[in-house]
Amino acid sequence: MVSLIFFGGVDSMKKVGIVGAGLGGLVTAALLAKRGNQVVVMERSPILGGRSHVVSKNGFTISYGAHAVLAPKQEPLRSIVRELELPMEYRKASLSKFKLFMEGKVISSPLGFGALTSPAISGFFNHMLCLKQFYKMVKQAPAFPQTMSVGQWIRENVRNPEIAKVLSAYAALSVYDGALDLYSMNRFVELTAREYEKNEPLSYMGYDVLLGELQKAITKNGGGILFGKPVSDLIVEADHVKGVICAGERYEFDEVVLNVPPKELGKLLSYPSLADEFGWYVNQTAHYVFVYDLMLSKRLRGDIGNLLDLDGGFYINDYGLNNPSSVPAGGQLINGLKFLTEQEQLDDSHAKESQTAFETLLHKVYPGWEKYVINKRIINRAMVNGIARRTNAKLLPLQSRAVRGLYLVGDSTEGSGALGMPCYDSAKKVADLLS
Ligand SMILES: Cc1cc2nc3c(=O)[nH]c(=O)nc-3n(C[C@H](O)[C@H](O)[C@H](O)COP(=O)(O)OP(=O)(O)OC[C@H]3O[C@@H](n4cnc5c(N)ncnc54)[C@H](O)[C@@H]3O)c2cc1C
């Protein structure tokens, strides 16, 4: 039998139900709670964070997905951090530790660490000596056709194949979703006008700390997080959302925010106009990356922070350098990542091959690694929705047109930026819409 749960509050408060405790849901909940609304987050699993959840094992702390909080000093994160008074710890990645792997050799990168984040794309270009000329040209021609992307401009204008190769690799890395094709030349010109110094791109605050802080911000302001509570349906009457069915119970809300991946969203579309509105979005191919984590009892090499294999398409990150609190003294945590091709997205046949190729690279860069392995973790198909941007997949709108009071947040939405950024951006925009 379905019972009825009503979250009462003072009249000015909105009662907001948030489905999913991923980054997008938690940030939305924290902002809305801080602004005086009554929020309840319903999470189907027993843990926080969704694709940013954090696992602790053998004294190591590994984040399933996110390991660097991107562009913490840029909007929208800057104002979110301020509003929630989050104790962020900023750290700059060392440029000298960013390397490239080409033709069997590790070489120093001529590029800046700004390449890691597409919001820092201005820094990316400012730091590239090899592209000084490009930058000059851009400055001289401040208006481009509306449809011309940075990627297209490079393909058509950068004739040196080495530079073009490095650029394309960085574009893929920066980050996972074809950032250069996302940015129009006009937007790029606008971005390059800003000073790089004001745009520190990374903060290595552990995601476990961030998740904990968001949880505190929600509960401190009267909100609640319910764990192990899957939402199985939305209650919609006369095209207005009224609540959700969660773990067999009926919860009433004024507004509902969905922070669920498209596949899950598909299960919540029993109301006909929602099925019409969102059916198209949920049947798209999911996009994955191959992830390989190695926990070593001994540090083998300290001069590499991030390594991009230009020939193999792998990206290696030394967690120990980027996020020292994740590794016990003397140990090393290496995280490897590969962007799967279209075919690899569809099946798992590449798994063995990817692992072998990865280990071959490790032998070259971290000789002796296998003697010190405490634990290996292979996540064959970690989902990164952001890749969808590269494939012109359709991203979810922040607000339903068919049903009033229904909002969407997370990295499958039209929130701007790459990797974790759409989560923050969509959360901020939806919280603003609701306030
Ligand atoms: C390998 C990898 C590396 C990455 N690196 C970075 C990085 O360095 N920096 C960065 O910022 N980002 C990074 N990301 C991206 C980041 O992890 C994701 O963008 C982010 O975690 C997605 O969050 P989300 O808000 O979309 O929600 P999700 O994480 O998808 O969370 C959705 C939540 O909803 C819950 N849920 C689903 N259905 C229901 C239901 N019916 N009822 C109740 N609950 C439900 C799920 O259990 C989950 O907790 C990385 C991702 C990967 C995979």
TrEMBL record:
Domain named Amine oxidase: residues: 23-432
GO molecular function: oxidoreductase activity
InterPro entries the UniProt entry points to: Amino_oxidase, FAD/NAD-bd_sf
Top-level division of the source organism's lineage: Bacteria
Family recorded in the similarity comment: Belongs to the carotenoid/retinoid oxidoreductase family. CrtN subfamily.
UniProt protein name: NAD(P)/FAD-dependent oxidoreductase
